[in-house]
């Protein structure tokens, strides 16, 4: 049985009838790390707050373990939540901040001290236990906030963008630490973020949300390789997938994707997918890393090669992002770090047609 289960859960805020969450169903297994990811305002926090009991469910069911918790108050749900804002008590030491919740619940002093000590060791903050929050860096404060959750030994951890207030480097470090923490604690975790990179690196499974609706739930590799629609395809991956609206044509018995200066042959194994679109519009998607500069490939099939003009060259160190114009269409390619075409130069691009995606231009659903 799933550790946390949401069944057709909706949330409508009053006044104004704002549908923040729209019939979400999601099963989180025991010890699983599930990430809810989506743009700001898509309903992530609302969903998490309903699991925590901080927000009432408008309709649907939430169970934790085998218990329906719709009407169970937050303190009785056996969950611990970590927020973006650390909300530490400024007048208390780190130790007291971490101990506070347990003391309030009447745990014996020794048990409290042991749990705080253990959590502090896990988080590497043992030497900070006597400091006040104002004597800590942002990263250290976030650790204390984590510690406060860990000491509770909850059945489920809920995280709402806990790393958003940290700088990029620290965020990267904390991601690694959260992964380690999950391995060590073997707890069930639900983690909310707007950052697709964070989602990809943290989650066993990722649920992509958009406008209150879960679009797709999958493991990181599947999400990346088989997005179910344009939204997921564009949200996951950086720089994002290129989309070109064109049509499917047939020449000498072969299918081509055609958009003026961009005519490329559909890979044979994809023929069954595009056949019914012959003569009709189709949305073509290709990720920046599946576009190559012809100069740097061993074999460039002419039917997969197009010519584009270099507009901007962005060296990123290990790789270079090329922003190109393919006719009137902007396209981004992600090429090797040593490749430096000149701005305004025309270059030949090779599309890896075995990796491309096709979407129905009306519904934006992937054609599979
Ligand atoms: N207390 C509230 N009252 C009314 N509308 C709210 C409230 N909280 C959130 N919303 C609205 O619900 C939607 C989802 O918000 P939220 O769950 O906070 O999104 P996210 O965490 O993904 O950024 C947004 O449109 C937001 O404006
Ligand atoms: Mg939020």
Q: What's the Cα radius of gyration?
A: 25 Å
What is the count of distinct domains?
Answer: 2
What is the overall silhouette? Answer: elongated
Q: Name the strands of the widest sheet in spatial order.
A: 6-7-8-3-9-10
CATH superfamily of the largest domain: P-loop containing nucleotide triphosphate hydrolases
Helical segment tally?
Answer: 9
By CATH, the architecture of the largest domain is named 3-Layer(aba) Sandwich
Strand segment tally: 20
What structural class results from the helix and strand content?
alpha+beta
In this structure, how is the largest beta sheet organized?
Answer: 6 strands, mixed
Query: Percent of residues in beta strands?
Result: 25-35%
What is the string of SSEs from the N terminus onward?
Answer: EEEHEEEHHHEHEHEEHHEEEHEEEEEEE
CATH class of the largest domain: Alpha Beta
What's the overall average pLDDT, rounded?
96
Distance between the termini: 31 Å
Q: In terms of topology, how is this protein built?
A:
Layout: E1 4-13, E2 18-28, E3 33-37, H1 44-52, E4 59-64, E5 67-68, E6 79-82, H2 94-104, H3 109-123, H4 138-150, E7 156-160, H5 168-185, E8 188-193, H6 196-202, E9 205-210, E10 213-218, H7 220-225, H8 230-235, E11 242-251, E12 254-259, E13 262-265, H9 271-274, E14 281-286, E15 291-293, E16 305-315, E17 319-326, E18 329-336, E19 346-351, E20 357-359
Parallel strand pairs: 3-8, 3-9, 6-7, 7-8
Antiparallel strand pairs: 1-2, 1-4, 4-5, 9-10, 11-12, 11-14, 12-13, 14-20, 15-19, 16-17, 16-19, 17-18
Bound molecules: adenosine-5'-diphosphate (ADP) and magnesium ion (MG).
The site of magnesium ion has 2 residues, from helix 1.
């Amino acid at each position: 049985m799933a550790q946390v289960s949401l069944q057709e859960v909706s949330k409508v805020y009053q006044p104004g009838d704002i549908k923040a969450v729209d019939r979400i169903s999601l099963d989180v297994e025991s010890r699983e790390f599930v990430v809810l990811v989506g743009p700001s305002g898509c309903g992530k926090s609302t969903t998490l707050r309903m699991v925590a009991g901080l927000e009432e469910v408008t309709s649907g069911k939430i169970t934790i373990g085998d218990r329906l918790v719709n009407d169970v108050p937050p303190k009785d749900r056996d969950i611990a939540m970590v927020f973006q804002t650390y909300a530490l008590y400024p007048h208390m030491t780190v130790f007291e901040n971490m101990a506070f919740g347990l003391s309030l619940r009447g745990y014996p002093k020794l048990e409290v001290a042991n749990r705080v000590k253990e959590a502090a060791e896990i988080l590497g903050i043992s030497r900070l236990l006597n400091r006040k929050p104002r004597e800590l860096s942002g990263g250290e404060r976030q650790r204390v906030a984590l510690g406060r959750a860990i000491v509770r030994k909850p059945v489920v951890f809920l995280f709402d963008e806990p790393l958003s207030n940290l700088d990029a480097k620290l965020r990267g470090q904390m991601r690694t630490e959260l992964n380690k923490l999950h391995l060590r604690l073997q707890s069930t975790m639900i983690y909310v973020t707007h950052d697709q990179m964070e989602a990809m690196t943290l989650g066993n499974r990722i649920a992509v949300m958009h406008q209150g609706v879960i679009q797709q739930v999958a493991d990181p590799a599947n999400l990346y390789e088989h997005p179910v629609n344009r939204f997921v395809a564009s949200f996951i991956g950086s720089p994002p997938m290129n989309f070109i609206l064109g049509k499917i044509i047939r020449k000498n018995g072969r299918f081509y994707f055609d958009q003026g200066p961009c005519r490329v042959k559909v890979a044979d194994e994809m023929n069954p997918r595009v056949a019914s679109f012959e003569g009709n519009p189709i949305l073509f998607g290709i990720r920046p890393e599946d576009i190559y500069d012809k100069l740097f490939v061993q074999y460039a099939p002419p039917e997969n090669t197009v010519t584009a003009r270099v507009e901007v060259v962005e060296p990123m160190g290990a790789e270079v992002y090329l922003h190109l114009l393919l006719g009137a269409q902007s396209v981004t390619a992600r090429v090797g770090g040593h490749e430096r075409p000149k701005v305004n130069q025309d270059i030949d691009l090779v599309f890896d047609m075995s990796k491309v995606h096709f979407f129905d231009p009306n519904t934006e659903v992937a054609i599979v």
